[in-house]
Amino acid sequence: MTPKQLFTPETTLDSVLGTATARKVETAFGYVTVGEMLAHFPRRYMEIGELSKISDLPVGEDVTIVAEVQSVNRRRMQSRSGFLLEVVVSDALGPDQSTLRMTFFNGFEAKRDLQVGSTAMFSGKVTIYRNHLELTQPDYSLLDTAADADPRPIPIYPATAKFPNKKIREVLALVLAGVSPSGFPEFIPEAILETQRIPTRVLAYENIHRPQTVGQGYAARTRFAFEEAFLLQLALAQRRVYRSQQPAIARHGSSDGLLSAFDKTLPFTLTDGQITSGMEISADLVRGHPMNRLLQGEVGSGKTLVALRAMLQVIDSGGQTALLAPTEVLAQQHYQSIRKLLGSLGAGGELGSDPRATRVDILTGSLNTGQRKKALLGAASGETGILVGTHALLADMVSFVDLGLVVVDEQHRFGVEQRDAMRSKAETPPHMLVMTATPIPRTVAMTVFGDLEISLMKSLPPGRAPISTHLVPLQIPKMQQRLFTRIAEETAKGHQVYIVCPRISEKTAEDDFSPAAADPENGAPAGDGPPKPASMTVEKMMEILDSMSIFADTEIRALHGRMSSEEKFEAMQAFDSGKAAILVATTVIEVGVDVHNATLMVIIDAENFGISQLHQLRGRIGRGGLPGTCLMATWLDADHPSVARLQAVESTTDGFVLAESDLNERREGDILGASQSGSKSALKVLRVMKDAKLIARARTTAESLVAGEVSLDSYPGLQSAVEAWVDEDMQAFLERG
């Protein structure tokens, strides 16, 4: 039998490469099978033009040379952090000994690869610096000898120090020798391949790793991007079909019930976004299959009010509702907010309450035995119409008489299993409303939440004041002093201030937030210059404030994830009531905290936070009609790459514009599981911003192929590919609904 008949995606690498090399691949990348190795796609291609001699290089043009490294020098940059790597090379194609200098900024990979005596192919634009020819930040590919120069494009892969690009290409050459249609059967129907103008699976593997032209390599990339989008959209389309076939109790409400009474008490007019979203949700609730809707909008757009009106419609229909929040702080905020909005209509069972009133309870892990028993009995007896809670709602002991609606806030904090646990608490599948305050671009929502209907709220309710945002360069001593003076000025006006720090203390790594490495290259510190001060901690900030005379008469509280529930509640109560003027916290206050008198948000070491986090944090201020100010403090120089993220937040308060910037920076995250970290993305090739049109085509194609059926009986290979591609959480969700 030939190798082409033997290789399959499950073929182990040790049987192809030998035990020693396979072990090195596993150590470097975690791959143990041929399929995993083949999916190690190039980041880009080094396009090779006609080879030039160093002595004939034209200034201002792109060139390709084959050269030998003569010297390597590393020196620190003067005007910014980091280092310059200067590499001098000589021509390796002939007797001409002309030399050329190359410069790499923070060239960690070049420093590792380009040793004196090594030969490589370099491509870049020729410039003149101090009367000498130079290539700045050129592409390069190591060669064994000058004779190995190949005119075809060279794929550049994600690599490691011990497993460089050259070794990756050698391994893939051995793997590709065994790839054939018999071992890698095509699962995308031929008609779709023709319509989408994409190559077959086997040809795409060959072309992405060994293209004859750069265009051929990127065409192969399109095949794999479409494949990922198509499999995802098929899974989502099947899930939509499955849910549409599930029965649900229609919740028609009542013309003169609790919702009607509540609407009459509102002292303000609903925004257009609240009205439209409310109508969409109300229409879903009266259908005979479960609602699955995403309600998304800006921080402070009034989503809780919209969700509450949906809850009241369900209660008017004889059902109960639950609101699942990710933290105790947020659960308490929702509970207090709902009780306040409902007034006597939320005091069911209490003396003097409205006859139509319902009961609102809260269930969290910090309740004492008596409080927990009361909440559990209220839900189990049907007396409680709205039960707000954290993960405590998921416990087996929590039961309802008729759970009709589950509202999940900040759904990305919950995994599929947790949402499924809430569904299991109803005999008939309950309606599901998912809320998020993180604006999501349309293409992202179509990809990540493709199984949900989407309601969008962009307008803010009357009374929301504008928020101004400014960068504060802490490396300037006067700015440090001015920052604390500004805090004191705000508290002197009778207003309140948030100060957010990335860590709790220096004593443990188990903080609320783990700051990212300053430099992306293997987590190395940024450059050779003086190190940036360690990230500010809540404990250190409390010490600094306590030592300053301008805060001698100011009550300051701390709030973070290592505090007990009682301590958190006490700190929030002190701040909420106005007793405490300053709250020093971690990102535990990122969502849900609603203190109308808070007008200043100070974010220390702001580069440690993502765009969406920064936007969420500044949304905590300006909620009471008073103008808000957000100060993002950083030690980084203005030209540091991370400062661009802060400048994006400074430049706009449009969350949807920022969401696109955020996505472009940190990628999509694991869109099928609970993880939201870009580094754990389940997508190998697909980029939901870059490939927006391709995703739309994949969705249309998937919907036409599914055509109302849960399984693809006519396409068994495709169905197997869908089941193999989605993760365990997603598969369990498809099976149980």
Which secondary structure elements does this structure contain, and how are they paired or packed?
Layout: H1 3-6, H2 14-17, H3 19-29, H4 34-38, E1 44-46, E2 62-76, E3 83-91, E4 99-105, H5 108-113, E5 119-129, E6 132-136, E7 139-143, E8 154-156, H6 165-176, H7 190-196, H8 201-209, H9 214-244, H10 258-265, H11 272-285, E9 292-297, H12 303-316, E10 320-324, H13 328-342, E11 359-363, H14 369-381, E12 384-389, E13 403-409, H15 416-423, E14 431-436, H16 442-448, E15 453-457, E16 467-473, H17 477-492, E17 496-500, H18 538-546, E18 556-559, H19 565-576, E19 582-585, E20 598-603, H20 611-618, E21 628-634, H21 641-651, H22 655-666, H23 692-706, H24 716-725, H25 728-736
Parallel strand pairs: 4-6, 9-14, 9-15, 10-12, 10-13, 11-12, 13-14, 16-21, 17-19, 17-20, 18-19, 20-21
Antiparallel strand pairs: 1-8, 2-3, 2-5, 3-4, 5-6, 5-7
Helix pairs in contact: 8-9, 9-23, 9-24, 10-12, 11-12
Q: What this model shows, in words?
A:
With 737 residues, the protein is an alpha/beta fold. It is built from 25 helices and 21 strands. Helix 11 (272-285) runs parallel beside helix 12.
